[in-house]
Amino acid sequence: MMRRRTTLLTSCTALALALGATACGGGPVTAGGGDKSLSGQTVTVAGVWSGSEQKNFQKVLDAFTAKTGAKTQFVSTGDNVSTVVGSKIEGGNAPDVVMVPQVGVLQQFAKKGWLKPLSPTAEQTVDADFAPVWKKYGSVDGSLYGLYFKAAHKSTVWYSPDALAQAGVKPPKTYDAMLKAGHTVSDSGLAAFAVAGQDGWTLTDWFENIYLSQAGPEKYDALAAHKLKWTDSSVVQALTTLGKLFKDKQLIAGGQKEALNTDFPSSVEKVFGPKPEAGMVYEGDFVAGVAHDQFQRTIGKDADFFPFPAVGGGTAPVVSGGDAAVVLKDGKNAKAGMKLLEYLATPEAAAVWAKAGGFLSPNKKLDLSSYSDDVTRATAKSLVGAGDSVRFDMSDQAPAAFGGTKGAGEWKLLQDFLRDPSDPKGTAAKLESAAAKAYQD
Predict the structure, then answer these.
(1) DSSP-assigned letters across all residues of 389-417
(2) Which of 343, 268, 324 is nearest to 67 (CA)?
């Protein structure tokens, strides 16, 4: 699964991406040793990933094993990372490393005293090879706890070129034009969008892109920090905009009821699977990994994307996200776990998953040629090129009880809104009530 960030990019980063090469000097940094110094040890890693994402991350873990001799064991937590990890710690079975998909969860873990600060080696690599924003989001009260290994570009709308060509539609530049194009696709025999309403996090991403473009970055930052209430008129306006899509049965494959029974992988299947039901699916760059790995679609030919379009006269949004590796104090092998983080900080580790697909690295030393296709390179350039206008996924910045828990908070309330989008003002009030409680706790 995937998630978000704000970013200040150095000219060195931009140059590296523009040249498609390591423009900042230095070859791959090795970490964790190359002498099998961890032979006989096992590192347990917990994370939300499943399916192709878990498979590709395993390739990174296998490369770590080949380098250090340490065995690894991956444990999938499902969406409720906070609850699962908390119960494992209480049961005396804490993993060594957790891949945390939300800033709010990382902050929660740190404040509970569960995390070890990153080693000097890892922190030095972050300072040298990552834009400052990644350190900011990995830090709590001045201490660096999280290494952002995987980034996501959450402002990409993926489509079947054949479906759009058959409808005579070109990638739109505005939100209204996207809905109009969707009706044209629908008239040609396919629904416009597959919506993964069973996964609440996809609905928060829809909202965030609309809100960032329509309300602007200042209000986005204020709402993310709960310095602006969810009852603000800007929130009601964004929900109204989103509701127009949700209630249009021509635009959503199977209508609202089917959308609520569609998870993220299934939404990708509805567009790129053997029996297409829709022409487009909105989600992050990781759609490419599913389309390629599970449905053998050639990225750039059978599957492509256009940037999430500007809403209501605003600028096109760029919402980002990411998964941070943290080391738990109570893990049985935290020392080897920290060696894994030192390895994950290197371009060498990032290149393993980059080659496999469905992955973006925030490491500016990663050579763009490591990515397996031009579309992913274009996605990376789009993310980096947005500069400091990028915003980290809002729900991932919130306390987990509000922004990152299945069946609760924002995830559930937006699912309720998908089911019945007739009362944006009432939904805003419920969101504010849930947010106020979560931020107070």
Answers:
(1) G-EE-HHHHS-HHHHS-TTSHHHHHHHHH
(2) 343
Q: What is the pLDDT of residues 352-379, one digit of tens each?
A: 999 988 789 888 889 889 998 888 888 8
DSSP 48: S
Unique residue bearing structure tokens 């924003």: 133
Topology (CATH) of 157-317: D-Maltodextrin-Binding Protein; domain 2 (3.40.190)
SS3 per-residue string spanning 44-88: EEEECCCHHHHHHHHHHHHHHHHHHCCEEEEEECCCCHHHHHHHH
Residue with token string 């980290």: 392
| Per-domain residue ranges of the chain | 11-153+320-392, 157-317
Which backbone phi and psi does 74 adopt, to 5 degrees?
A: -100, 135
Q: What whole-number distance in Å separates Cα of residue 106 and Cα of residue 328?
A: 11
Beta bridge partners of 157: 282, 306
Pick the CATH number of 11-153+320-392 from 2.40.70.10, 3.40.190.10, 1.10.238.10, 2.130.10.10: 3.40.190.10
- Give the mean model confidence (pLDDT) for residues 68-91: 93
CA-angle at 174, arms to 169 and 177, nearest 5°: 40
Looking at residue 51, its pLDDT comes to 86
Q: Are 273 and 286 in contact (CB under 8 A)?
A: no
Give the pLDDT band (50/70/90) at residue 52. Answer: confident
Locate tokens 């805003």: which residue? 428
Find out whether 30 and 57 touch, Cβ atoms under 8 Å. Answer: no
CB 8 within 8 A of CB 132: yes
Indicate the residue type of 208.
E
Q: Side-chain half-sphere of 296: how many Cα atoms within 13 Å?
A: 1
Q: Which residue has the tokens 């943290």?
A: 326
pTM for this predicted structure: 0.75
Distance of CA 213 to the CA centre of its chain: 18
The residue ranking higher by pLDDT, 231 or 441, is 231
pLDDT digits (tens, 9 = 90+) for 200-245: 999 999 999 999 999 999 999 899 999 999 999 999 999 999 999 9
Whether the predicted pLDDT of 2 surpasses 60: no
